Amino acid sequence: MKRLSLIDAGFLLAEKRETPMHVAGLHLFTLPQGANEQTFLHRLADGLRSADSFQSPFGERLKVGRLGLLGPAYWETDDSLDLDYHIRHSALPKPGRYRELFALVSRLHSTLLDRNRPLWEMHLIEGLQNRQFAVYSKFHHAAIDGVRSIHLTQSMYSTNPRERIHYSPLSMEAAERYRAALARQLPGREPLGERELRNVAEVLKERFDSGLHLYGALRRIAGAWLGKEGPLAVPWHDVPRSAINTSVDGARRFVAQSWPFARIRAVGKALDGTFNDAVLAMCSGALRLYLQSMGELPRESLKAMVPISLRREGDLDSSNAVGATSTDLATNIRDPIKRFKAIQASMKAGKELFREMSPGEAQLLMELLQLPSLLLMPLGLTSRFPPYSTVISNVPGPRQQLYWNGARLEGIYPASIVFDGFALNLTLVTCGDKVDFGITACRRTLPQVQRLIDHMEAALVELEEATGLSQPKGKKRPRKKTTAGRKKAATGSRKATPAKKKKAKAAKKG
Amino acid sequence: MKRLSLIDAGFLLAEKRETPMHVAGLHLFTLPQGANEQTFLHRLADGLRSADSFQSPFGERLKVGRLGLLGPAYWETDDSLDLDYHIRHSALPKPGRYRELFALVSRLHSTLLDRNRPLWEMHLIEGLQNRQFAVYSKFHHAAIDGVRSIHLTQSMYSTNPRERIHYSPLSMEAAERYRAALARQLPGREPLGERELRNVAEVLKERFDSGLHLYGALRRIAGAWLGKEGPLAVPWHDVPRSAINTSVDGARRFVAQSWPFARIRAVGKALDGTFNDAVLAMCSGALRLYLQSMGELPRESLKAMVPISLRREGDLDSSNAVGATSTDLATNIRDPIKRFKAIQASMKAGKELFREMSPGEAQLLMELLQLPSLLLMPLGLTSRFPPYSTVISNVPGPRQQLYWNGARLEGIYPASIVFDGFALNLTLVTCGDKVDFGITACRRTLPQVQRLIDHMEAALVELEEATGLSQPKGKKRPRKKTTAGRKKAATGSRKATPAKKKKAKAAKKG
User: Fold this and answer.
1) Is residue A408 within 8 Å of residue A30, measured between CB atoms?
2) Is the confidence at residue B196, as pLDDT, over 60?
3) Residue B252: what are its φ and ψ, rounded to 5°?
4) Exposed, middle or buried: residue B6 (CB in 10 Å: 0-12, 13-18, 19+)?
5) Which of A250, A447, B55, B383 places its Cα 20 to 30 Å from the Cα of B282?
6) Separation in Å, CA B410 to CA B45, B90, B95, B402, B403
7) pLDDT of A380 over the 70 cut
8) Rounded Cα distance, A323 and A309, in Å
9) What is the sign, positive or negative, of the torsion defined by CA atoms of B144, B323, B192, B197?
């Protein structure tokens, strides 16, 4: 039995009907040539069901004692696993566009996982156009974070289009093969074994002598609260109220879209920044346009929670090894270049906090910073005191083209968590030569959230034009034609950008 | 604003993730000749969405004060109704048998309704074989009981296969037309108007002088606890432990099947009993076979909660006007005739309690008897002290053949509530010349519940043979061939008995 860390358990404590704490990936595939959809999907399901020992977290359910989640919690093996419950076969109503797919995913993402069973569901979805099919996989955040979910994905699929696996992707065998492959890629490092997760008390004891760095970091955070730390943004400080920051209910709306990795990366390079800076600037510009269109752009800038991975390379076992910085999105700055620079400075200041810390220290700081918001949620206070305006999460996805029994993986669209108090989550996965964005929103608070897709394209074009990467087409409304063309699409009828058919190279993009 | 009765609110108070308190109907239709499924279903959905004022409960959401459900609760008009949320379009994976339909309904029935919105969902389901489609409609039991749901059904559909309605079935207009039609059928009676629901204190005051009947009834119940009231069964008294009586989790399994009304009615007549007595005997026989096959038949008899309608004719507005008797299922009696007689006697004794009471008195008694079990549920005590073994609910359905814009209604299969402590619910709707059974069970506790369908047929055959209505085919296992034939079917691949194609007569069967 593995013990849950305090952060893991926090996601269970914070969960309510209105704020499920699960994360999901919508995987889009193209059927292999000549394959019959019905037969192919039934074989995939049979393959999944053939497991008898399971890689974590598929076979583990939650076990708590008399104190419930206030006492220690563990993952224990579920000996009566009902695979027909977890693996589900769904279909889209005709005509089977992305619109119908997003509607189904919005619904699936709105329901709570059953805490009496291992905390996951997998839905094979047939009936998509263009010989595609989809797999929506849902996990509780107590069991998995973004980086672990990508490890899991890579352990389940193959880089070889001709490979037909004879073991279940859920099985221990899949995990062991993946661990062995990673060990070959990282020679000289021992692949980490199963490791008992520790509670905060043990962590505190172990890191007792590392208090100096931590003390410095906490001083700087206190300074930021007093306005003395320049671009360092911290939770709860100066978070403006906007349409996004209200209490939420249980229904979600999910939309997704892909952009070429190279386009966003080029903007970052042109401004001496990272890919991540460019993503934040693109999202910031989109949020500005979105709030402006509703006449609700606040005078103070929005603040984003930007998760950062604290996972050591090769750690496949920790459920959550993720921290977060609070980043100023500079939505109150009109000029796109100045906005980019402000975001970049804020992101830098946030990372600075962690610069001299060990991963252990960083994780401890994160727990100290994050726990208050997780623990405030059950009290219903985060909607009155939102610690952030939104979440923007960048998850590095697989760099190689993946296949599942010959079906080509075209995209990994993440569906994530909406919190009481910030009703919007923008998560992206870099996948081959594309960036797959998934937007998850509270259905009631942000009913027109699909428009954000248009605004993201417009914000990217604005950055491209400001940096001279492309020529403005008009003055008032740049690239009018393109934007108009995308408009129709964003209501749901558009095809998400498919991955190019040429073999994706394992290019170095990090 | 209408106030919720204590029973209505009790269903909200008793609700947990593991025990959702919604009820549903699975309506099976045949497409009109020549209609294209996709176009037809889209038109139905558009028609539903065209409403701007709603008949109850479609437009009403729950409103509670500071005390939550412990204080007074009301239904208030939801001015921001999001019809796209409530009306959903789904599809079945191929090959689109009843097996796939039941799997989807099992899942849809496992998720909680969103309490921030009116407490209903409607799913149009395409992809069934044989030019059929299905509609799964789900309502919170706080808003609706079985009889009210049939009134609602009748107000939404038409008896004329050629009628194409120009108003939404959800609209106030549909309700008003139905009210007017009922008034024509019941001349001399004023159709009841909207009526403020009263809380128990008011009811108590109003009925203060009717205490005598009530006092007598409570005395008899006390007597039954002491074993002095013959066949009168009361909640909690002598309820044996069986596989059905354990705590439940949130996942459901739903299966359905139809039987000819005439077959069951004939058994009742042959034994000087009612149709309802025959239904109970059929279910009792099936439960006996089911528990025997698992080697778990308890020595004491199972007790069923049998809801009885306390609704005055023409009352379309009360959310819940339903009581319950506790009926001895005599599962410890081997002889089918003796078993029938014991059930009949117990049912008679249960009804006797109410014989001299006015509907108001009966309802008050019911509230006194039912509230303890509803209120015990949040404490998790009903699984340790189950008040009943199972629920068997008989809902009189429409007698006339109904159509929705020309699509013929082939069956109304009810999906109902599983309680903590009794993991099985057998509900039936008499629909034209058929009886449509819906079996709802906790997925974990009763994994092989589809076998009950076979056992119900076997139990009916046993009664038919015992009464001489049919000849036994063999000695050890009567009608072996038929039973074997049905066996394959019960795993899910069987077609539910479709209604006969000839025009169903509005025969008097009550």
Assistant:
1) yes
2) no
3) -115, 160
4) buried
5) B383
6) 19, 19, 20, 8, 9
7) no
8) 6
9) negative
DSSP H helices, B157-252, are 172-185, 200-206, 211-225
Phi first, then psi, for residue B146 (nearest 5°) are -55, -50
Count of other CB atoms within 10 angstroms of residue B130: 10
Nearest Cα to Cα of residue B229 among B237, B238, B220: B220
Residue B444, burial from CB neighbour count under 10 angstroms (0-12, 13-18, 19+)? buried
Per-position b or e across B322-359, b if 16+ CB within 10 A of its CB: bbbbbbbbbbbbeebeebbbbbbbbbbbbeebbeebee
- pLDDT tens readout for residues B46-105: 999 999 999 999 999 999 887 777 778 899 999 989 999 999 999 999 999 999 999 999
For residues A132 and B321, give the distance between their C-alpha atoms in angstroms, rounded to a whole number: 50
- Residue B286, number of CB atoms within 10 A of its CB: 25
The minimal CB distance from A85 to the residues B80, B93, B443 is found for B443
pLDDT in tens, B427-486: 999 998 999 999 999 998 887 899 999 999 999 999 999 999 998 876 544 443 333 333
pLDDT of residue B408: 97
Q: Does the structure's ipTM exceed the value 0.90?
A: no
> Please, which residues 185-224 of chain A have a Cβ atom closer than 8 Å to chain B?
none
Mutation to test the A interface, candidates B36, B94, B122, most A Cβ within 10 Å: B94
Shortest distance, CA A488 to any CA of chain B (angstroms): 19
The answer for residues whose C-beta is within 8 angstroms of residue B488's C-beta and 6 or more apart is: B494
Tokens standing for B257?
């099947």
